Amino acid sequence: MTEENKDYVGMANCFFCGEVKHIVMNKYLKKTFTKNAVYDKEPCENCKLVMEVGVLFIGVKDGESGENPYRTGQIIGIKDKAVKEMIQEPLLSEVLKKKICFVEEKVLNQMGLINKKGDLKYKNNQLKSLKKKSDILKKL
Question: What total of structural domains would you count in the chain?
Fold first, then answer.
């Protein structure tokens, strides 16, 4: 019995958090198919839930900018109400509209969201264990 070749199966990752969103298959791209990649800018379910009530602050390398800066791994969801207290216009309107904000590590540190090592000061890993959308929204 031979095992079927799976060179055409890959995983689509979330543009924002990097987590796997779904499996992608394309037999025509066998052996050249990227196994783990971002294929669109549609957020995963967890990022969508956070964006419904707040803004995703995504840590990027100091000095990085643009549409797709180098991410450093910090992802922090902050409610709209708190964002309004942290950011002023004209940036505030843009951040609330886009629901994401790429932030340099040094700024995250100045905001008190990460320590000097780059670790999150406040960890909330409960989202992955929650099952119902209403439970997730209550925790945010």
Answer: 2
pTM: 0.70
Q: Distance (Å, rounded) from C-alpha 15 to C-alpha 47?
A: 10
- Examine the fold and report which residue of 42, 58, 74 is the final residue of a domain before the chain moves on: 42
Which residue range(s) make up the domain with 27? 1-42
Look at residues 44, 55, 68 and name the one whose alpha carbon lies nearest to residue 100. Answer: 55
Same-domain pairing of 121 and 64? yes
Closest CA to 111 of 125, 122, 100: 122
Residue 18 has pLDDT above 50, yes or no: yes
For residue 47, give Cα distances in angstroms to 6, 38, 43, 52. 29, 14, 6, 9
Mean pLDDT, the chain, whole residue set? 77
